[in-house]
Amino acid sequence: MNKDFSYYLSKFLKDYLVIERNVSKNTIRSYTKTFQLLIDYLVNNKKITLNNITFNTITRNIIIDFLNHLEENSNTIRTRNQRLAAIKSFYQYCLSYETQNIYNIKQVLSIKSKKYVKPIQDYLTEEELETLFNSIDTSTSKGLRNLAILVLLYDTAARANEIINLKAEDLRLEEKLVILTGKGNKQRVVPIMENTKKILVHYLKQVRVNDEQIWGNNTTYSLIHHLFIKINKQCKFNKKVSPHTFRRTRAVHLLDKGVNVLYIQELLGHNSISTTQEYAKVKEKSKFEAIKKATPNIKTEYLEDWNDDQDLLNQLLNL
Fold it and tell me: Are residues 130 and 220 in the same domain?
């Protein structure tokens, strides 16, 4: 790669994001992955050598081709938009430095995110949640750890990485509080219920933990991933259960209990209330499905098709 592109990309990932922006490790990992995919696409699909990857050779159309390539290879529109956001963030950073390439940079910055309809996701009923918790074998230290992770995921409505990265100092069990570190390294203090406290106290008595990692040194995304594979096999719900299912479930359950949406926004760590209100749509969907099941099927086969009524059609056309 020519110095202009590679130099600024290195500065962006290693200095700007880490030092100036102080973004989370997950964000840096996501941005790095975006540019790995982009460079791989340029080299293997567009046949542009590394030395020829510059701001001039990476045109607006090439970026759009790359985004389309992602979709064609089973990436969702949401993922496509996330990759575009990373690219535009880098180009926005370069705007102040690369004045000789300002036209091409602005052309890339003009690319719009692709619209998509957000699917209404499933959540767990209280009965399903109880079944899931009861399926965990707590006779072993690993099983006890798994139950503690799952209970915390639900009770705090935390993201998976927020639970994985918990340290001993983040647990204030006497006060029944947990400190979570979310996106952008923002911290929030969330309460936990008495039963959650009891499970955590029991777990901490059974295992040896250190200040850095209360779940053990091998607690990674891979471990969480395999935990949920096991859960889906054992419980066999008519829905896929993921760590985010717990977050969504907690929000819907709180809405069902009449908890103010502003409190739920604070609990979830959402910057915008509109993001939290997406969970209200899940609740409304569940209400509609319940009403639908309780409504008798009214036969309509005997009704005539009004499209065949020429007199009626003529009357409507002449209104």
Answer: yes
